[in-house]
Specification:
Length: 391
Amino acid sequence: MRKEKQPATAEKKKKRVKVLAVILAIVLTIAIGLGIWAVPVKGKANTETWNAGDAFRMEDTVMLQKESGKDFVILNLTDIQYSDALDFAQRGYTKETIRTLIEETKPDLITMTGDQVWTAFQKQSQRELISLMDSFEIPWAPVFGNHDGEGNADKEWLADRYLESEYCLFKKGPNNIGGVGNYIVNIMEGDKIVQSLIMMDSGSGYNYKDTPESEFMMSDAIDSKTQEYILNADGSRKQDYYGTNYMFIEKSQIEWYKWAIAGLTAQNGGVTPESTAMFHIAIPEFHLAYLQWKDSGYDPAMGFGEKREQVCCPKINTGFFEVMKDLGSTKNVIVGHDHVNCYSVLYDGIRLSYGLKTGDRCYADNDLNGGTVLTVSDSGVQVEHKYVTVK
């Protein structure tokens, strides 16, 4: 005989209610957590301003000491691209790359040329990266890329987190020139400037919709020889020389750069110090340099590295390269942005170098993985890539 189903006891009902309450609490906690995680945040705008009449003060720069007679090693990382949403539990490749680079190069300073974080969710990525970098107990100095600040945290908020770091040297810089994070790191021997690192924010995207065609890729200072690389005989631009919808180094930044070089020269006893400019998005001359190197038959005396994608430079040339050349201080420019370009070419007296990308974000070209080493010696700066294979 089949037994009749017994009604639930009061005790069983209480247990079910408790279980449902616990489940509901867990669901609400996760929902609130995800909400907080996704809520956009903004940082505090810097109050520092700049004008060309300001006195240059060394105490407003970062100063690191180089031991006399010993090389000062700078390790540059680029396009790390941590993402909360895409690789929260899959950062082993990038972390192992960074650890290996630091173990093998033993840098005195680590620099980063942009896109440290990316995609819609960046807040936790920023905290994770800062924690990792501080764990090495080595000074590190980043600049922003076009992806930094594009998600749920603006550049000011990301910058505020850098400022909280124990070892990060980042400064927001003046708020009345282009970008966030234009600052200077000086490598010193006593009171002498051995090398100045000019850290700059090259911006993000730019709408060229209303920009006249005549302004694209040209600068008043570009000579006729260089124009041959840009223009066809009828004056039209060559198809293999074009820009993309990215921002350029702004005129205000160029004026700040000129002021900084003059100030550094005065502080260095009237001797213009050698400098390296570091930012994210390549200037148009990176393409011109490659064409010149290609025309030479890839002369190893001129360059090294590879070009596997177009030069994603801005469509407008604001003349920054010509200013650097005229002032005679900057001998190296280090950028990121184009992940599978890692060529370095000496062009008109300035070495233009793509940093070797760090990590496996976006591209599957993991043979181009590692970092770029700048060795500051008594004879100047040597640039080389350090390749890392992660199993």
